[in-house]
Amino acid sequence: MHITQLNRECLLHLFSFLDKNSRKNLAKTCHKLLEVFQDPFLWSLLKFHSPVELKKDNFLLGPALKHLSICWYSERVKVCNIEDWMKNSFQKDFCKRHENTVSDFLLDVCNRCPNLLSLTLSGCGHVTDDCILQLLKNCPNLKSLKLENCVQITDHTLEAVTLHGASLRTLHVDFCRNVTQAGLERVREKCPSVMLRAERSANMIPDSKPGKKLMLEKASRKLVQL
């Protein structure tokens, strides 16, 4: 029995076990399998693990998307979370090449995925408050927002949560060094039903703190002396 003789339900079930690349490759073999690849049923969950994956034409964005995760853990991607004055020329060039990759992708999600229920971003050093604001406005059903080590996220995102996160039930801002204790308390006060977690965020040295560069340079010299 040839695979194309299976009914649509069986083919969808088969596709559900494949990763994005395998689905795309299988869809290239015939028109019937391409139609299955394009079925929204397959694209309610998307996970990405590198900047390159966001630019591949091996997935679909649409109203069916409910859960989105973009988690980068490689050493190269961590460079984007280092302050600019600490980066060498190679690191700056690397960051520049994909500076808007995640933000542009999320704006596309805003326009095409109004039914999003959960968003997880980890290590996305270029994502801004404005990007999260647009998501909260355009995805009114968002129930879970988890941000980890997203260094450009500030209290403006927390304020946006209080204004536009009516459906939100879970908010994580772990290791986001530019989030303050005052901002966290504001969320707790205005959104008591939201389960808030901010591991280490308010205890880290923010980028805007006066003399931070000097403090870190002194600490570095001290370690060298030891």
TrEMBL record:
InterPro entries: F-box-like_dom_sf (IPR036047), F-box_LRR-repeat (IPR050648), Leu-rich_rpt_Cys-con_subtyp (IPR006553), LRR_dom_sf (IPR032675). It comes from Setophaga kirtlandii (Kirtland's warbler). PANTHER family: MITOCHONDRIAL ATP SYNTHASE COUPLING FACTOR B. This is FXL22 protein. One of its GO terms (cellular component) is cytoplasm. SUPFAM superfamilies: F-box domain, RNI-like. Keywords: Ubl conjugation pathway. Gene3D superfamilies: 1.20.1280.50, Ribonuclease Inhibitor.
